[in-house]
Amino acid sequence: MLYIDTVPLMPKDFKVQRLSDEFGQYLLVIKCAGCAHERRANPNLLAHICGWDAKLADLEKRLRCSKCGKKGSEIRAIEIQKPHGTLPAH
Q1: Residue 15 lies in a domain
Q2: Does residue 7 sit within a domain?
């Protein structure tokens, strides 16, 4: 008797430390520590200024809020969700 055991697809661990992680296929959420202003940005926007090897921790110290002008922000990366029914690109 031939028995094939299949493993269900597990969600992969999504962790971004540098702009180049995950091939830049994510979205950055940048939140000001002073006034809580929030902005979303693509990683290639910051990579043009700082380079793809820049660490998110270093960018948090470097970026300045466009509303209040203070430095110090929190940056987190979120996965880009594909719409349901989207076929894979081949």
Answers
A1: no
A2: no
Positions of E strands within the chain: 26-32, 38-41, 73-79
Structure confidence by residue, pLDDT tens digits, 35-45: 999 999 999 99
- 2 domain-assigned: no
Total-model pTM: 0.73
Report the distance separating Cα 65 and Cα 33, nearest Å.
9
Number of domains in the chain: 1
Cα-atom radius of gyration of the chain, to the nearest Å?
18
The answer as to whether 74 is a domain residue is yes
In eight-state DSSP terms, residue 81 is P
Give the contacts of 76 (CB within 8 A, at least 6 positions apart): 28, 29, 31
**What is the extent of the structural domain holding 52?**
21-79
> In sequence order, what DSSP letters do the residues of 33-53 get, joined into one string?
TTT--EEEE-HHHHHHHH-TT
